[in-house]
Amino acid sequence: MFRLRCVNSCLRRLLHGRTVNRDQVMGQLQVCSVEDEVLDVVGKNKAKLTVKHVGSAVEMLWRFQKGKPQMLRTVELVKNHPQFLTLRVLAENKIALMDDVMLVDMLYSFLRLNVDHHDSLIQQLVSEAWQRIDRFSMTSLSKFAICLGDQQLQHSPLMGHITSIVAQKLSSINDARHLTTLMISISSLVSPRLRDALISRAYCLLDTMDPSYYNNLRRVVQFLRHVKYSHHPMLEKCNKLLLPSIPSMNPENISMIMGLYQSLQFNNCDFRLAVKQRLTELIEPSTEPFSFTKLFVTLAPMANPEIRERLENAAFVLAGDLNAQQALAIAEALEEIHCRNFGLINKIASVIQRNLHIYKPIEVAKITQVLFLLHYHNPELFTKLRNILVKFLHRNFVPNEVIMLTRVLSMLPCTRLEEGVISRVEAVVNQCSLNYLNTISFAIAKWVRNDSSNRHNTPSKYVHLLQTLNHCGQKRLQTADRLDIVLEDLKYISGDWFDEMLLEQTTITLQRMMDQIHWTNVPELAFFLSRTHNLCPPLMDHIANVAIKDIDKIHHSAIYATLLPFSHLNYDPPRAEEFYDVCIRRITPHISSFEPHLLVHLAYTLVVADCFPEELVREIFSIDFLGKLDAQLEILPDSLNLRTRLRLMQLNRAMCLECPEFQIPWFHEHYCQQLQNTGNFSVSPMQQKIHRILGEVLGGINCVRVAVVTPYFYTIGFECILDKNLQPLPYSEPSTLQISDKGKVHWGTSTLANIRDELPPGAQRYC
């Protein structure tokens, strides 16, 4: 018995000693607070390190880095530490001992610590993970997918395998974080069917997640951007869930989400107003260049003059601390807001000039364009930029880069164009989309205007290139077989070359694909017809028929684009009344969810088509709506702001004249007077000539009025008054006309001052 107790005591001491020894290593790791301490433990205990120790050490190194701001991370110092190589070797030797979770975590951490993608450690980890991939949990699978993306393996067979697993197990994925991460990773490989299934699953899971985890929502929007699909119900749901989180977001997250919204052409008034308020609060605290750049780029385009001045002052102070990319981002924002703060522009330009050797070809093109549009005066810098662009162009073979470099080069004044530029463009023309071909046509037009070598005849090099463009454009349209691809190609195209050379063939191609028109592409096709002023009855009749059949499937916000060509081109399809009725019924339940400016434009489109839906009209002219519209106008781009104000005035006028029973007051008198005073109703040279001729016929220039403004500010070309004997009556005495010293009439719009208001008995106005 005594001997057994002794043996038992010895065994306990032996096991306890081993436990203490093992715990000592882990304990040393756990008390480490910086990377050097972790690596020192690795160096002192490398013979004792188990796979668990190696995993903990690698995880801690990345955790310490992740906890620091981006600008303060020391990844390169960690990577170059002598014991980091030891850790890598140990990790590679113990891959077979790692469980699935540790294997993927190890790969993830080493990639975050900038271990080269082609390093044998990374290659071995990826190979081992591939062999185990079918048994991975969704947590490990989503993390592994991120690792493949980090290695630019989005289109690899391995990512295809992950896509297949996701498709098979989609219904069992119950974690929004796992699903949204996988959606981003496999976005380049999903079919339309899997895309829709992923969106549907994500839509359900978003209801079960904590809205404060807004990265899940951001990833859903990012997925939609990757697959180029503006799924409005999903965007609206994400936006609704994101709104409460805006007060806690930093400029980086806000900037990222705003960029995604813009690329998907999704605009939400409540979101933008909340973002404006949040970023305005952060102007003073944002003294770090990275955060301030994100804040400036996002806030400046929707800020009022007072906030813009604060932003510009802060940018001037921080300009010297900006890096190359931050200076370019600030410069692009300054161009977007048409900044004329030349002190700030000069300071940002000096930072850019100091870093010119760092920029990539596309970035140099952006710099050149921005500085040119900002009217920056530095001929030496522009000469240098032009030389850099030409050098980049001569050695570039990527079509989108060649086209952008070419377009920007054409903006710069140049008496003669290098032959190498033309030859490089010709080399990529056959690979270009219609949009790229159109861009080249703009460049050629500018070169022809600027080329001093032949003022009377277009040089043959340009003629040949234009002929090549025409041939490639025609061929691309004639061989196209998918409507959605054609519409994507046509989305931003415009200009004389397209209208003259390709519009007819485009119409033929679209008619050939008429059987592919369905509710998903009707708004986009209709908007193209409106934008190009292309009246094509067969296409428009088919659009109307599809809309009538599937109106409930078309998102209510897309009804505006669907209606636009019919109203804009004054065309009624055979089932016009039914078409407008179903469109009005589709939007009526959703009136309160429309963006204010879009609702105004939609109502105007219906009014032009002689449709006056009372519920829509009363909503627009309610006090609450007009207040919301005023708030939105403050954050809209200037051009859209002006267009929306004009449409509201025209809508107000139409209601007063066409529907007096609605009792909508006329409240645009002051606005119209302001428009008139700004000279927007100027008289054209042709009108001046016609005015003189009519004056000669009627017995005096004071017997005719030009550009007559009515009480509701319609503008009428010409007006005269004839008495009961059909003899012209003067509007005023000749002496009251504005005549210069040289006897020339001062042309301007007619006002009601000094002009007879009442007609004599029997007299009539003629327009």
Search tags:
767 residues; mainly alpha; 4 strands; disordered N terminus
Question: What does this protein structure show overall?
Answer:
By secondary structure, this protein is mainly α. Strands 1, 2, 3 and 4 form a 4-stranded antiparallel beta sheet that branches. The termini are far apart. Mean pLDDT is 88; it is low at 1-7, 13-22 and 735-754.
Secondary structure blueprint with pairings:
Blueprint (H helix, E strand, L loop, with lengths): L1 H29 L4 H10 L6 H16 L8 H5 L2 H12 L6 H13 L7 H13 L5 H13 L6 H13 L6 H11 L5 H14 L8 H13 L5 H11 L8 H13 L5 H13 L7 H11 L5 H14 L5 H13 L5 H13 L6 H13 L5 H16 L4 H13 L7 H10 L5 H17 L9 H20 L3 H8 L5 H17 L9 H10 L5 H14 L8 H10 L7 H12 L8 H13 L5 H7 L2 H11 L4 H21 L10 H9 L7 H14 L6 E5 L5 E8 L5 E2 L34 E3 L1
Antiparallel strand pairs: 1-2, 2-3, 2-4
- How many helices does DSSP assign? 37
Mean pLDDT across the residues is 88
Q: How many strands, which pairing sense, and closed or not: the largest β-sheet?
A: 4 strands, antiparallel
What is the subunit arrangement here? single chain
Strand content: under 5%
Structural class: mainly alpha
Compute the number of strand runs: 4
Shape descriptor reads globular
How far do the termini sit from each other?
128 Å
Helix content percent band: 55-70%
Radius of gyration: 34 Å
